[in-house]
Amino acid sequence: MPVLSYQLYSSRNFSGLEQTCDMLARAGYEAVEPYGALLAQPDTLARAVEENDLRVPSAHVNLAELEADPDRFIALAARLGIRTYYAPYVMPDQRPTDGAGWREFGARLDRAGAPLREAGLGFGWHNHDFEFVPTADGVVPMEAILQGGPDLEWEADIAWIIRGGADPYDWIARHADRITAAHVKDIAPAGEKTDEDGWADPGTGVLDWPALYAALGRTKAGILVMEHDNPSDDARFARAGVALNAGLEA
């Protein structure tokens, strides 16, 4: 059964890390997924998760920082119990503009992950929506990334796939062997939740999570990470994520 985790980026605008981890443990989470800024505070992060008996099976890592000092992240993985890192984003001005460029970007990711794999860790890519918008030469960047980086894992963010105009079931089925984690977030009905950038708590939006969970169950996803990019109440969102997961596992 996949580990229930929580992307700590969801709570960046709320109480401190230790208070957030306490809230998540009380809500019923097993694990958390830190992002780059928190990896720069290893002592604080380690204390917060240890005091609340939380695991850290995955983390988001800045690609340039990983390339510059892979040993730092290997040591951090040993300290926190991280098994897999995912690079989560590339800025618009750094994005390739054609298929060849995206394939080379995939190869760059593969090279960056080589030291992690040699240390027994996993490494992959976490998508947003732009990877599903074809380039001028008709290439879908996500396909090119996976082609260019044959050893890459994929943390599939389902809601972003949909916002990119793609069919999540098709992508899940075709790349089931590459998907080792998934982000669970929901999209609000059109015109709703504008104060939360159109996102909804898991299970309260338009996504068919029973069907999506069934599809993800046919992948290698060992971690399901609850995420909301801009919740007005992170504790409310956290509780909704636990409730959705419990209901679908029952």
Automatic annotation (TrEMBL):
Tell me where on the tree of life, at the top rank, the source sits. Answer: Bacteria
Q: Which InterPro entries match?
A: IolE/XylAMocC-like, Xyl_isomerase-like_sf, Xyl_isomerase-like_TIM-brl
Q: Tell me what organism the protein belongs to.
A: Paracoccus litorisediminis
Note the SUPFAM superfamilies from the entry. Xylose isomerase-like
Domain Xylose isomerase-like TIM barrel intervals = 22-234
- The protein's name in its UniProt record: TIM barrel protein
Per the record, a Pfam family? AP_endonuc_2
